[in-house]
Amino acid sequence: MYRFLSILSVLIIISTIPFVSSEVIRGESTIPDWVKNTAGWWASEQIDDSAFLQGIQYLIKEEIIVVEIPTEIDSEDMEEVPGWVKNTVGWWAEDKIHDTTFVSGIQYLISKGIMVVEQEVEEVEEEVVEIKDFYMEVNGGDCCLNWAYIGNEYNLQIETYDEQRGKYIDGVEISAKIISKGGELRHDFGEVTTEDGIYKNSIIIPSMDWYAGNILSVTGEYFGVEKTIEKEFEVFKNQGGGSSGSYGSGGSGLKMFIVGNQGNDINEYTLTTSWDVSSASFVDSFSVASQDEAPSGVAFSKSGKKMFVTGNDGDDVNEYTLTTAWDVSSASFVDSFSVASEESSPSDIAFSKSGEKMFIVGNNGDDVNEYTLSVAWDVSSASFVDSFSVASQHSFPTGIAFSKSGDKMFIVGSNGDDVNEYTLTTAWDVSSASFVDSFDLSNEDTFPSGIAFSKSGEKMFISGATNDAVHEYTLTTAWDVSTASFVDSFSVASQDGAPNGMFL
């Protein structure tokens, strides 16, 4: 019996021309005599399998014969070469049978796995496109501003194109960071890539350390081509147009001020995380005892360079200037304005965003008194306008705040231990106010004394004399106290055992 060495392989160059059964041997090709001789010798067992395979390999490589390589082998555990195949090869060597019959025998050996073949797929080299350039745009169009406020978001947008004003391209490796003008690293966005040709991100400006000039530095690399774009942007201390009675320190939420009834002073705190009282730490105090020994409320101008303190001792508003914005240690007394004709026990103070309106809440008249200032932020120019009674909700109001648009007013009181919300049909006009809803504060403090909001209206802060603390709340709907929920408290007992008003 004959056996075929299955470990030997025939390397087949797969032709790009489809296999056609009627064209198993190319008509224009000539089969060398040595191939036919080799086939005859193998059929008569004069040479071994490897010599015969060399002839078959030559025919296939030169594309003289075409055979199909099956995806599955129809094997019946047959390892021996059938006698008829040997006979077929021998007859073909003697030109007694047609080429097609010979190729059928070879095809049979392959299909049964007796002849093991390997496919060598002809590889087509892909054309390599040389990338000579790409285009990158940083904060282009109307996407982003070149300035931000402390405590606010600074947005960035990076776009990558295949050519100027061309199509977006992905996979550009981007390195983005913010540095000071002196080269100090302030924030590293890390290594990123553009998706659909765009990368967006943002960061909250964390502190006064970022004040003034900053640089957004962006480096992009694509197929070895690298380019860097730097954009300067300014950081400002406060957000113009913010309501001083609602939120302070320029709307950054990084400073908090508490009126101390025991120490007759204003206590200043810094917050390492904006609008998070748990991150507060005491900085300094400023005594107002020379002007009033019973201070009750505090407010600041939007620039942070003026401070206003109400007092029960003098029944007036005391105005101070600060040589360094938001730094009470730099304060000096300027002038006073008496409110005794309207309120003999003023408890808190707020201003419109322009500084041309002032509001005093008092627990003697249980009302809010509105004043106009002919010179913005100058209490000596104030004149009384009107009052709005809150007695139906509070018989002892202690704190006041407004939404940033001036169409909502909030009064805190120790009688009901709650916050009362009012809407104003005319902004900054208390005569147009109407009661909306209340939120109970008794679980945190039974003597709430001051109130403030974050600039977004999604956080509320209450100072309380019972626990000598500031309590933080979140509002799921901005400026809607009915959606408030308690978050955390921060004790101010070390600085004052009876805090009154607050400003944040």
Please describe what this structure looks like.
Helix content is 10%, strand content 42%. With 504 residues, it is mainly beta. It folds into 3 domains: 2-120, no CATH class; 135-236, Macroglobulin (MG2) domain (Immunoglobulin-like), CATH 2.60.40.1930; 249-503, Methylamine Dehydrogenase, Chain H (7 Propeller). The strands form 9 sheets. The protein has a 5-stranded mixed sheet, with no helix packed on it. A 4-stranded antiparallel sheet has the order 15-14-13-32, with no helix packed on it. α1 (33-43) runs antiparallel to α3 (83-93) and α3 (83-93) packs antiparallel against α4. The chain is rod-shaped and about 135 Å long.
What's the helix count?
4
Question: DSSP strand (E) fraction?
Answer: 35-45%
Overall number of strands: 32
How many domains? The number is 3
CATH topology (level 3) name of the largest domain: Methylamine Dehydrogenase, Chain H
- Return Rg in Å: 44 Å
What is the CATH superfamily of the largest domain? YVTN repeat-like/Quinoprotein amine dehydrogenase
In a nutshell, what does this entry contain?
This protein is mainly beta. 10% of the residues lie in helices and 42% in strands.
SSE topology:
Elements: E1 2-3, E2 9-13, H1 33-43, H2 49-61, E3 80-81, H3 83-93, H4 99-111, E4 116-120, E5 135-138, E6 147-149, E7 153-161, E8 173-180, E9 185-193, E10 198-204, E11 212-222, E12 225-236, E13 255-260, E14 265-271, E15 280-287, E16 295-300, E17 306-311, E18 316-322, E19 331-338, E20 346-351, E21 357-362, E22 367-373, E23 382-389, E24 397-402, E25 408-413, E26 418-424, E27 433-440, E28 448-453, E29 459-464, E30 469-475, E31 484-491, E32 499-503
Parallel strand pairs: 2-4, 6-12
Antiparallel strand pairs: 1-3, 5-7, 7-10, 8-9, 8-11, 11-12, 13-14, 13-32, 14-15, 16-17, 17-18, 18-19, 20-21, 21-22, 22-23, 24-25, 25-26, 26-27, 28-29, 29-30, 30-31
Helix pairs in contact: 1-2, 1-3, 3-4
